[in-house]
Each structure stands twice: as C-alpha cells, then as structure tokens.
Amino acid sequence: MTLQPEPVHLNNHHRDTLVRIFQHPTSHNIEWTDIASLLSVVGTIEEHREGKFEVHVGTEVQFLERPRHKDVDVQQLVDLRRMLTTAGYREVVEGFERQGRED
C-alpha cells in the first residue's frame, strides 16, 4: 500500500521535473540540479562527502551520487522513479496528466 504524499506546493519547474522522471520513454537530459531542487521540496536531500547525497522521501531513504556530467543517467532515474512511486508521487503525476487533458 502506498501512502499519498503530504500536499506540497510544487512550482511549474518542479512539476515538469517530476513528470519527466516518470516519462516513457525515459528522458536522457534531466539535469541533476533540477532533481536536487525537486527532492528538496518533496523530501530532504543532504550532501555528504565526495558528491554523495542522502535523500529522504516519505519512508524511503536512498543514497545518490552527483553525476559526473550535468544530466542524471537512466539507472538513477529508475531508482528515483521507484522511490517516488513508493512515496505516492506516481499518482500525483497521473493527476497532473489528467488535468492537462481536461484543460
């Protein structure tokens, strides 16, 4: 059972990043700074040594590495997708998509 995330105000930039994380086919140009900004709003992100980050979203905890380049790789997106799904954000994205179709 997934818990619905607590209501958080996501600006347009955060909403776009969240939708792109769940996008199929997977986007290959999502910047780390966009991911870090989103994670700081939906959870917490704390930098540790050598470019490693401890991320908490809902009950999920994950350790991520800052990519060598500006974009995150596909495996990091898969890991983020799993974490955000467990925290209930897949339903949030589906709600955004329904709103877009109704407008």
Structural class: alpha+beta
The main pleated sheet reads as: 3 strands, antiparallel
Number of domains: 1
Radius of gyration: 13 Å
Contiguous runs where pLDDT drops below 50 for at least 5 residues: none
Summarize the structure.
The protein is of the alpha+beta class and 103 residues long. The protein is built from four helices and three strands. Helix 1 crosses helix 2 (32-42) and helix 1 (12-22) crosses helix 4.
Descriptive overview:
This protein has one domain. It is about 50% helix and about 15% strand. The mean pLDDT is about 85. It is globular. Helix 1 crosses helix 2 (about 30-40) and helix 1 (about 10-20) packs across helix 4 (about 90-100). It starts with 11 loop residues before the first helix and ends with a helix. It is built from four helices and three strands. The protein is α+β, with helices and mostly antiparallel strands. The longest helix has 14 residues, at about 90-100. It has a three-stranded antiparallel sheet with strand order 1-2-3, with helices on one face.
